[in-house]
Amino acid sequence: MVTSHNAEEIAELWREYEANASPEAKVVKDFDKLEMILQALEYEQEQGQDLEEFFQSTAGKFQTDIGKAWALEIASRRRKRQ
């Protein structure tokens, strides 16, 4: 059961995420971008289409070391398949 306290906590966490106000928010934002480019990579492989715009839209926007490292790995795997 969601109480008003829980609802306020969820709302506060959402505001924190939207404001990019904590290390956790930054990681979640990076993971969101990573998930998008992973889906684009899968779609490219399955459908044989070039979805460069998805990769360009995230280029240089990763904030965390883990996000940057994973984005580089995804880009490397994409280059190997082209």
TrEMBL record:
Domain of life: Eukaryota
Keywords associated with the record: Hydrolase, Metal-binding
Positions of the HD domain: 3-69
Annotated InterPro entries: HD_domain (IPR006674), YfbR/HDDC2 (IPR039356)
Pfam families for this protein: HD_3 (PF13023)
KW Metal-binding (keyword) present: yes
PANTHER family: 5'-DEOXYNUCLEOTIDASE HDDC2
Protein's name in the database: HD domain-containing protein
Species of origin: Brassica cretica (Mustard)
